[in-house]
Design goal:
Aminopeptidase, single chain, alpha+beta, binds coenzyme A, 8 strands, globular
Length: 189
Amino acid sequence: MPLIADDTPPWFPLETERLILRDPRPEDFDDIHAYAERPEVVRYMAWGPNTPEMTRTVLDHWLEVAARWPRTEVSLVVEDKRQGRVIGSIRLTIQDEANRTADFGYTYHPDAWGQGIGTEAARAVLGAAFGPLGLHRVWATCDVENHGSWGIMEKLGMRREGTFIKHLKPRGQWRDTHFYALLAEEWGR
Ligand SMILES: CC(C)(COP(=O)(O)OP(=O)(O)OC[C@H]1O[C@@H](n2cnc3c(N)ncnc32)[C@H](O)[C@@H]1OP(=O)(O)O)[C@@H](O)C(=O)NCCC(=O)NCCS
């Protein structure tokens, strides 16, 4: 039986104390571009800083993917409930249905950094992954110098399973990458 069958209900939108994690909408463009165009946001990423055309291409892809269900790739925008605007995005992709394994990743506007937003959204996604989705293992990666990112993973109880040396060359320089993972039976311990 597939992990997500035609009659499986979507595991999103998700709501937390401060956030709504939902499918993107065309009118989210300005909010998404406001962080995607910033060099400090993409410092450890293989993409960006985005031109408006690049952000348009990404949003169009998200909108096209969001129109389908069931699907294995889910990119949600993160809306700040108080401000009523999008401050970031979070993605969960089922990489291996047979072994019920997914990876996830996230990006936020600098104005939102350092307030536990990234942890709050990632906690909600892991809750869905190990809850309604029934996944066995979720993993994520980050640059070894991206303390905010591995800070989120450690706060969620994820285990650093290894570090790949000179693993990626995002901006012309080899970078080391931490690999983190969590199993269903470890979630909520
Ligand atoms: C990395 C990122 C997602 C962190 O999001 P955030 O909302 O600021 O993270 P949180 O506030 O939930 O912080 C989680 C933990 O990480 C650590 N942390 C956060 N920012 C940090 C920083 N600048 N330096 C060192 N540690 C940091 C802390 O331990 C923190 O927990 P604490 O506040 O209880 O001590 C955010 O900075 C971002 O969007 N960066 C640009 C995109 C990116 O790099 N995405 C990840 C790619 S792998």
